[in-house]
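Chain particulars:
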Amino acid sequence: MQESGKPVAEVIWELGITGNLLYRWRGENHNAKRLEAPRTAPMAEAEKLVRLKRELDIVKKGERDFLKSAAAYFALERL
């Protein structure tokens, strides 16, 4: 390819991917460089999604615990 100097067919074979995927990646990289924006890797996106889901679960549990405590407090106040 461009940076390695290897033929496209060799790069495709080494990576075990299709030619379409390699050309798509190359196009995305070209567009990202043109826009001066870093291309985020799919793995980084997946890790970010997992982290955000974990954080959401923690927030939901905290809200649930808070509501339980508030309900218990107000129930005791009526007695």
